[in-house]
Amino acid sequence: MTYRRHNSHTVRSQATQMARDRVHPPQLENSDEQRFRHCAATTATHGLDKEGLPSYLASFTKGLPHHPDTGLIDNPDHYQLFVRAIDSGDFRDFRDTPLGHDGNCNGSTTTPPAWLSAKAQGIPDLNVRAWESQSAGLAFDLQGPDAQALTMPPAPSVGSDELTAEMAEIYAQALLRDVPFRHFSAGVMGLGVTKDKDDISATNFLDIVEGKKPKVEEIKTLTDEMADLPWFAGTGAVTDPQVAARRRTAPTPATAFRGITRGDDVGPYLSQFLLAGDAGFDGERTPADGRISYGAIDIDQRIRVAEPGKDYMTSWEEYLDVQNAADLRGQEAYQAAPARRFIYTPRDLATYVHYDALYEAYLNACLLLLGNGTPFDPGIPFQTADNIDHQQGFAHFGGPHILSLVTEVATRALKAVRFQKYNVHRRCRPEVMAARIHKVDVLRDQAPELMKMAADLSNILDEVKTHNAVQNGSKPPVEQADSHLLPMAFCEGSPMHPAYGAGHATVAGACVTILKAFFDHCAPLSLIDPSDPAASEAQQITGLVEVLPFPGYQLKSANLAFVPTNNGQKLDVIPVLNKDCKLAQLTVEGELNKLASNIAIGRNWAGVHYFTDYYESLLMGEAIAIAILEEQKLTFGENFSMTLPKFDGSTIRI
After folding, report:
1. Is 504 a catalytic residue?
2. pLDDT for 474
3. Of the chain's two ends, which shows fewer C-beta atoms within 10 Å, N or C?
4. pTM higher than 0.85 for the full model?
5. Catalytic residue selected from 46, 497, 521, 609
């Protein structure tokens, strides 16, 4: 036993040394926090003692008291109290920070302020909503990298082409929230007409996928407006390689609003892991039923259906109440029939990421991969026949091992991203940046950059104004003023923590990295039986496809994908096309990457995150998972390896 104790201590010490040797990088932010200052006009409006105090125009201030005329925090000193509490992590400092209104601090139990919106006024005893886990980034962990041993590059600054493009994208996503995902699939552009990527595809293709040309045109109007912006047009040199890596150009309905990792641009918009089921442990059903075996019970991929066309925070009064911490959670409307369906529209995806248990999608993916017999990475032991290995993976290198590890990394990801959110970047949410654009006439003296942003976005802003007028039409007259606010999918808007990085995206990066390390990432993802009658129409579409492996090629399982049809009530099968409208196949890596992007960008569809929040957080989550795998490898006696494809396209071996 002494020998075992010594070896156990040695292994733990090696893991400790590995963690200790990781360089803690410098933490750099974009300097917007101190950049914007109160001008003469806003100094007078806020009743401040002197001009030039920080306004924190681009910083996260949700929950602090805000001025009704400017939307800025009422008193800059409140922000310093907030930062002091973040730095100390002392719960008493948070209690000393005003939440919602000046009187709500120092343990006071004073009543909330008089709410301004009809929605808030109509909820009896509506209270305030607290910030979330501000000190999590100060906690220590016993496995993986320290929360402060990771970093993210500075977020795009106000006035940058990138942030303007991000706001155009988020506005467009809000306007397209009820367009079925079929209209965003590879193949809706450049298939069977002139085969020009700028042309909407032939009617016979759209009919087979239940697509409507006017819906594709609706998307194309907005993607064309996005494409004219300098960032998406590719004008202007980008010298920072981290920034260049996330730049996208020439968006179309078939390519816009997707992730930028390998596999994101192949096949339908939604990952198969968000739709497909399995055959059950006794073959009782087909994957098209959308149910996943969770032991002897099932997980149903159908979700609750939020009321179409219903957005929130489109009036200034409602927006301001939410910034002043009005707790409007749970006030969104849902359909009576159909009550549930497969994820059919971006609003459905927003609902999924509103209420998901954070690792839920990746646990489901793991169950599907295990149930489908997807092979493990070739470097993992115990994969030959039982009569050869005389051992099966279970407690290690088997189902329980991977199922627990894919969830375990989530807490580490959340701690690391909380440090970036609160202690480094404190980036304001998109709803706030839209409010700054909405109030550009009031704020232009202290932030001239807003004028250019509003001018660059003028066409999209006109559409937002029209959309919001419909949303506000039944509200009291005071709430019917012209509005360029961001239409939100959630009544409460964003969570009560800063935008950058994104918790969902960091967890996505970590969990998907674990899955790609354990499973053979190059394996084709074969969930659909090609002989199924549902695949017959998919074979018909191949007549429009420019390049097949050979004439008369019969589609294989990995050439087929599920898409929701009939208002999300069933899954149909279509062929997998790439961005060039050529037949492609789904792979384990590609659909796992797409799953991570779907979940992370689902938060953008809701209006609560920017594109950079998705991508940079994904990379940080990946780094967390790799570090945990490296440390855990020390604990096993078997000589094994894992080959991991990273999100940037490179490959490493653990």
Report:
1. yes
2. 93
3. N
4. yes
5. 497
